[in-house]
Amino acid sequence: MKRLLAIVIDLLLGAAVGALLASVIVPALLDAGETSDVTTGLYASALGAAVFALAGIFAKASIGGVSLGIDAPEGRSIRIVSHLGWLTLAVFIVGGWIITAISPIEFFSGDGLAGAGRIFQALVTPEFDIIGEALSAMVVTIFTAFMATVIAVPISFVLSFPAARNVMSDTPLTKSIYVVLRIVLNIMRSMEPIIWAIVFSVWVGIGPFAGMLALVVHTVASLTKQYSEQIEDVNSGPIEAISATGASRIQVLWFAIVPQCVIPFLSFTIYRWDINVRMATIIGFVGGGGIGTLLTQYQGLAKYNEVGTLVILITAVVWILDVMSARVREALR
Amino acid sequence: MMQPLLSVRNLTLTYPNGYQALKGISFDVMPGEFLVIIGLSGSGKSTLLRCLNRLLEPTSGSVTFSNHDITHIQGEALREHRARIGMIFQHFNLIPRHSVLKNVLYGALGTTPTMNAMLSRFSDDATQRAHKALQVVGIPEKADIRADSLSGGQQQRVAIARALMQEPQLLLADEPVASLDPSTSNSVMSYLERINKEMNTTVICNLHFLSLVRQYATRVIALKGGEMVFEGTPQEITDEWFRTIYGDDAVEVEIR
């Protein structure tokens, strides 16, 4: 199984090196612009993969094998593997430089620096006329985060039990519920809240409601995972003791597991609200309402003094919440 | 002839990982006995106790309690069976942040409707019995203190009170004094003895220290590698038996 994975790694690396060389690095050197031929790229990847595979067979060791810890090459093999490794790294760095369009000339150009200077100047001379508008938008953002957390907590609490392995290990049925739930939650969590915000801003319209729904989805996925890991961590002694009194399943959850989890749950929840305030700001950029939306509006109008005010306000609020939530979590321990 | 309270026949238990913890155990327990099970760690003592109140389900064989075969019961019948048997543990297993009184009341969970219990609505009768149980174990004044603020010995007494709440016909004790110091150990053991003698509750207790076995047991069985290697009175455990049970290198340690 590991050998198969090692071969896949080698083939992918070889293909990537071939494609980068043929489609990115060589055209850039020839100054051919971005119009490179797809077929050439494909042939080059196949060739690269073949070379890496042959090198692997020849050396009886490969990059994939070494990185998974199943090959321990010596002598000439180690030289082949390390040469290939360095080649790969070099091609990746050069190719990456070209792809990300890194350009020191633009970074240090007079025009560019002057533009950056203007924006920085505007940011540090904030326009406080909009402070009323900014504060009310900030209130929207904070409460978007707060309501998302409040709504997500009971849902996460209920879901965290079927998502905990030790609660669900009794029968094949409960085990499969656990597995399915874990997969769904992982998918939900892998989708960034900003994507959920785009979905919900179409669904319920742009505004704080869309932002809140996006945060609810992400918060449920994250909190359920954290809560359920806490449940998996509880001391099994009280579970045995409460079961031994003839308590029902629900009673065992409520009297043996929940008391051991309350404090960590509270701690996770406060931290999650803190995170949600930051996320609510970002979500505002794509139509989630609140201070993020205000920020994109002023940025679109190139009113950087106003943007400066908003940036200061956001920084202050995030910093205060961060300190407060850290203090509270410290006290809960 | 008196009926045994508990009959264990050819009991085996194999864990899902293939480990055979019990390899065919048979014995009877008469009402009022103070039976002590001895044996090395890993000999199957804890597994055996957990088969009796069915925290574990045996692989084969049978357990009969008060003439009911409880080997494979499930659901409501299992809850009722567990409620009839009290259990105390090496690490006490109290709910740490809850008060002593609440911890004792949890002994009544098996007979309290789920919703009432979750809303902390225990009957007046249950609350009275809980206070009484705390009196029996000599700490009535600790009722409103958090359970985790008590000493080890006191926590074990709360655990005994919780078991008494069940008004059990049988009390299981899994290494009840293994995490206590010698003097506290004797105090906890003497409470078990009083419950055995004064309330006529049958006790089955796992123990390590032979001195305690000699002092409290009315009968002893010894397990080794999941098999029963000795059954008799405490007086019958000679040095030779001792080496058979605990291995040739073992030296008996006294606890007073």
List SSEs of chain B in N-to-C order: EEEHEEHEHHHHEHEHEEH
Q: Give the class of chain A from helix and strand content and strand pairing.
A: mainly alpha
Strand order of the largest sheet of chain B: 6-7-8-3-9-10
Number of strand elements of chain B: 10
Distance between the termini of chain A: 43 Å
**What are the low-pLDDT stretches of chain B, counting only 5+ consecutive residues below 50?**
none
Q: What number of domains of chain A? A: 2
Second CATH tier, the architecture of the largest domain in chain B: 3-Layer(aba) Sandwich
What can you tell me about this protein's structure?
The complex is a heterodimer of chains A (333) and B (256). Chain A has 333 residues and is mostly helical. Chain A folds into two domains: 2-102; 128-332, MetI-like (MetI-like fold). Chain A has helices at 2-29, 38-59, 63-67, 75-99, 104-107, 110-124, 131-160, 165-168, 172-190, 193-203, 208-232, 236-244, 249-284, 291-300, 304-332. In chain A, helix 7 runs antiparallel to helix 13, helix 9 packs across helix 11 (208-232) and helix 13 runs antiparallel to helix 15 (304-332). The model of chain A has no long low-confidence stretch (mean pLDDT 89). Chain B has a six-stranded mixed beta sheet, with helices on both faces. A four-stranded antiparallel beta sheet of chain B has the order 2-1-4-5, with helices on one face. Chain B is globular. Chain B folds into two domains: 1-84 and 170-185 and 202-256, P-loop containing nucleotide triphosphate hydrolases (Rossmann fold, 3-Layer(aba) Sandwich), CATH 3.40.50; 88-167, no CATH class. Chain B starts with 5 loop residues before the first strand and ends in a 10-residue tail after the last helix. In chain B, helix 5 packs across helix 6 and helix 6 runs parallel beside helix 7. Classes of the chains: A mainly alpha (333), B alpha/beta (256). The interface between A and B is medium-sized, with 19 and 35 residues.
